[in-house]
Amino acid sequence: MANISDGGGSRQLGYEQTLMYGRYTRDLGSFAKKEAARIRQRDAKKRERKFRPLETNCCNRCLAYVDWCRNALFARIGEDWIFLLVLGVVMALLSFILDYAIAKFQTAHIWLFYELQGKPVLQFFTWVAFPIVFIMFSTGFTHLVGPNAIGSGIPEMKTILRGVILKEYLTFRTLISKMVGLATSIGSSLPIGKEGPFVHIASMVANLLGKLIRSTKGVYENESRNYNMLAAACAVGVSCTFSAPIGGVLFSIEVTATYFAVSNYWRGFFSAVCGAFVFRLLAVWVKEEETITALFKTSFRVDFPFDVQEFIAFSLIGVVTGFGGALFVFIHRKIVEFNRKHKRVTRFLQKK
Question: Would you say the pTM of this structure is higher than 0.90?
Answer without folding.
Answer: no
